[in-house]
Design a protein that fits this description.
By secondary structure, the protein is an alpha/beta fold. The protein has a domain of 215 residues: 3-Layer(aba) Sandwich (Rossmann fold), CATH 3.40.50. The chain is 37% helix and 17% strand. It is built from 10 helices and 13 strands. The structure holds nicotinamide-adenine-dinucleotide. The site of nicotinamide-adenine-dinucleotide has 30 residues, from α1, β2, α4, β5 and β7.
């Protein structure tokens, strides 16, 4: 199954039997939503941070844990494509509970890959920019040193490496996507999703709290573009590889706060608090590889994405 990476529209996936792990969460539910019309979509989620209400009406929810091989085996019956989104996503929780982080994000991925090998299903893995830690320079290319700074980053790197080695060792079709800072509707408020936090603060008229001096930069990618990257990964012949998924552009956190204040017409003050220990200074994806190999093209500008969020208050 190959797709010539020429158009910027999303490749249509049709008539597949698809498993989305973590499909009741933020990214997974958007993926499921985009696929459910033309495919048989199953979601495996333990609802630890995800919500039943995020599951599209025509998708089947299997309430269960990716750490359990039997559950994953059953969920994968007749499946041809797996989007593996389930993970312990909070960095701070991973610092507090490194064993749980390893079990869910590291071992859970190994279970998914092992069952996919038996079912001969392609796996598109949600990896993270956290695998790079403090990059030597930006924009970050895929070959950058990997020096994760948290159990979350270490466990994502473990998952990322397993996915790639399963391709060499067993011929399993895997594609690894390293998401940068994803934002959009239904983002989980529990962990450090700065866009969501700033929008909440601006809408309440509360102070917008920038950690540190606000000169740190991030690459914010809209969830629709992450869905696009996943659909391209499901059809590419470039398996066994990893691709950055961002916009290739970055913004300072101070500018983000100002844009949020402007799109919400808020009179909130922007205040600065202590920097977060261990926070990285700069993060920006080099998306050349995803562009040339997958035909990925980020379509949603940060201003448009924020304006849409502020408008719909669909956060
Ligand atoms: P999320 O917390 O909204 O979604 C994760 C989902 O996984 C939740 O529905 C949760 O209930 C489920 N889950 C957790 N543990 C599970 C388990 N043991 N068994 C079954 N289901 C389980 O997070 P998200 O932001 O949608 O993240 C999706 C993926 O993208 C994750 O793998 C995350 O590490 C990765 N990622 C996200 C971002 C981002 O900015 N949101 C950035 C980089 C990578």
């Amino acid at each position: 199954m190959t797709e010539t990476p020429t158009s910027t529209s999303q490749p249509a996936l049709r008539d597949r039997t698809i498993l989305v792990t973590g499909g009741a969460g933020f990214v997974g539910s958007h993926l499921a939503e985009s696929l459910v019309r033309d495919n048989d979509v199953r979601i495996l989620d333990d609802l630890s941070t995800g919500e039943r209400g995020n599951v599209p009406a025509d998708a089947t929810l299997i309430e269960g844990d990716v750490r359990d091989p039997k559950t994953v085996e059953e969920a994968m019956t007749d499946v041809d494509t797996v989007f593996h989104e389930a993970a312990l996503v909070s960095v701070s929780e991973s610092v507090e509970h490194p064993l749980r982080s390893h079990a869910v994000t590291g071992s859970g991925t190994l279970v998914v890959l092992d069952q996919a090998r038996r079912a001969d299903a392609r796996v598109v893995l949600a990896s993270s920019a956290a695998v790079y830690g403090h990059p030597d320079s930006v924009p970050v290319v895929e070959a950058e040193h990997k020096r994760p700074t948290s159990p979350y980053g270490i466990d994502k790197l473990t998952a990322d490496q397993y996915a790639r080695r399963f391709s060499d060792l067993y011929g399993l079709e895997t594609v690894t996507l390293r998401y940068f800072n994803v934002y959009g509707p239904r983002q989980n408020p529990e962990y450090s999703a700065v866009v969501r936090t700033f929008l909440d603060q601006a809408n309440r008229g509360a102070d917008i709290t920038v950690e540190g001096d606000g000169t740190q930069t991030r690459d914010f990618v809209h969830v629709d573009d992450v869905v696009q990257a996943n659909c391209r990964a499901a059809t590419t012949d470039r398996t066994g590889e990893a691709f950055n998924v961002g916009t290739g552009e970055s913004v300072t956190i101070r500018d983000l706060a100002e844009t949020v204040r402007s799109v919400t017409d808020s009179s909130s003050d922007i205040v600065h608090t202590d920097p977060r220990p261990g926070d990285i200074d700069h993060s920006r994806a080099d998306v050349t590889k995803a562009r040339t190999a997958l035909g990925y093209e980020p379509n949603v500008s940060l201003t448009d994405g924020l304006a849409e969020l502020a408008d719909g208050t669909a956060i």
